[in-house]
Amino acid sequence: MSIMIDSEKCIGCGRCAEVCPGNLIAMDGKAYMKYPKDCWGCTSCIKECSAGAVKFFLGADMGGMGSLVHTRQQGDILTWVMECPDGSVKEIHINRKESNRY
Amino acid sequence: MELQKLSTDVLIIGGGTAGCYAAITIGEHSPDTKVLICEKANIRRSGCLAAGVNALNAYITDGQTPQDYVDYARKDAEGIVRGDLLLTMSEKLNAVTEHLERLGLVILKDEKGKYVTRGKRNLKINGENIKPLLADAVYSMKNVTVLNHVNMTDFSVSENRIKGAFGFNVRKEIFYSITAKAVIICTGGAAGLYQPNNTGFSRHKMWYPPFNTGAGYAMGIRAGAEMTTFEMRFIALRCKDTIAPTGTLAQGVSAKQINAQGEVYEDKYGLTTSQRVHGTVMENINGRGPCYLKTEGITSEQDDALLRAYLNMSPSQTIKWLESGKMPSQQNVEIEGTEPYIVGGHTASGYWVDTDRETTIHGLFAAGDVAGGCPQKYVTGALAEGSIAAQSALRYIDSHDFSGISDEEISRHFWEAEKFLDRDNAPFDCEQLEEAMQTVMDRYAGGIRTNYRYNEKQLAAANERISQIEKLAETLCADDMHELMSIYELRERLTVCKSLIAHLAARKETRWHSFAENLDYPERDDENYLCYINSRLENGRIRIIRRRPVKEDEHYEHNDRQ
Question: How many domains are there within chain B?
Fold first, then answer.
């Protein structure tokens, strides 16, 4: 599991590189994932990215099928957007003011 | 590298849960005390809670008392805990929880405004943004400065008194020498000592943060601090592949552990943390694996709630369910034990501290996963310890001033780091040596491959190989500051491995299945081992010290330190 960064969408703000707990993302005008095998999968970077450029995926070695996940935020709503390989898109909306049921 | 000298009243190393809360405590109680946090990444998302957390697992619910919490933790650890540390922590759990809520954490309440509990000790929350909330509180303190992306590597200690610490920026070529009146170490535990569950591309998809490398343990060991109970390793029972938490399934939808034949097996082995892991190992050994959490048959509303809950703490599991097209109601969730970790927030490994959380080095305090003797801390316990350590550090600096670090000492540490940057053409790289270390630990020191078991002969072999790899690590070279960080992380892990091996060899009994399963001594031996196994590095050799149990009615002080 790791992330990839869409350089077309990246606005070069550097916030993903700033928060990565492993210091794994580097900047070259735009952000790029310098150490893909060292990712913990915490998704801090995708939640920081306002451009939807940072995308998270599961490695094939842990059963990943190639879906790419990014987030979008509007007020208290954090939306997880999953782009599937067949072109379909799934969205889950989380209200950050609501507790987990479990 | 450029040399920068800094000074502060209190230096906090590690801006995770405990470190941030220690800073907030000093900020609120002593706004004139200068505090500096040095954090290897960025406090906004560093440490164990980067992804968030699923629940608060340490809270004294109605009808329960702090003593009940002590009793629970003591039972789970088969007696090897510090009563004084557990009680002083437990007494603060509810106050720090309420503080967290004031900082913005969403905690589920009923219509009367009371927290909704999950079992005897747990609260339901939305913990996805817990770390940004703590970071915002830190930044609101005018007396607290944060240095992000600074990796501290060594203490400055003379005559067993702390003087400060050394480290470097992981992005810019800057070496830091920092003098402080007191230091609070909050660097977390150690992951990456053993070969992990996923060994390929997803090698870092592990339970504990792969960036917690045991730095604080290694710094303390090298400085001659006493350490305790490293042999009580922690192995988490997790969802296979994603290594996501199982507690949410077990407690949230009452999912039982079942084997491949569908039999509930947890009753056969017991319900302590180590027994749950052990049961799963045994079912697999006896041909009844894989093992699962039985989720088939739950409702689609429960499916939906689980998808959301996991997004707030371990998003890989939600993605796994969605990608596979099979929800937990349709397919049981396979479980497995992780590789072993050293982590004082779950088990009891770490610095040997007094009741006030001072280590055996004067002026050095420890909190969170790096502090030993006090398991089952979880998030709120780490906050409680951060506040206790901060209060103790404030009392200490009342009567202790700076004692300077000599230029000779600065130069020695500076050049120790600089030599890795100056050199090129090393035969090995860091990754190769990390792999070698993890392979040795896996095969000879009770990793996944041997079902967490080991014997004395294997431990001796492990010690010999780790000592060889330690020498090889000195030949590494670094092209940039990130690589320099990796070299120091490897050295830290190797230092922790050696202490761990010595501790495993010293406890000649099997008190905890899987956590410390010594095949030469398969039985529990209360007559000889109802005691703490402690250690200290003296003249390059690890000396084992056995200490009597400390009960909760005692205020423990270090009476025999230098």
Answer: 3
Range of the domain at B477: 415-547
Q: Which helix (H) or strand (E) holds B534?
A: strand B532-538
**Element housing B366 (H / E):** strand B364-366
Cβ–Cβ gap A44/B323 under 8 Å: no
User: How many other C-beta atoms lie within 10 A of the C-beta of residue B447?
Assistant: 24
ipTM: 0.97
User: Which of A69, A94, A102 comes nearest B248 by C-beta?
Assistant: A102
**Chain A residues within an 8 Å CB radius of B118:** 102
Cα distances (Å, whole numbers) of residue B189 to A57, B120, B210, B375, B403: 27, 26, 10, 12, 29
Give B94→chain A minimum CA distance, Å.
18
Same domain for B206 and B144: yes
Secondary structure element (H or E) that encloses residue B436, with its range: helix B430-444
In angstroms, the Cα distances linking B127 to A97, B132, B248, B256, B419 are 10, 10, 13, 25, 43
Q: Which residues of chain B have pLDDT under 50?
A: none
Residues B349 and B377 in one domain: yes
How far is it, in rounded angstroms, from Cα B368 to Cα B208?
Answer: 14
Position B176 in a domain: yes
Q: Which domains does chain A show, CATH number per domain?
A: 2-95 (3.30.70.20)
Task: Give the CATH number, domain containing residue B522.
Answer: 1.20.58.100
Contact B150, B8 (CB under 8 A): no
What is the CATH number for B276? Answer: 3.90.700.10
The predicted-structure confidence for B147-179, as pLDDT tens digits, reads as follows 999 999 999 999 999 999 999 999 999 999 999
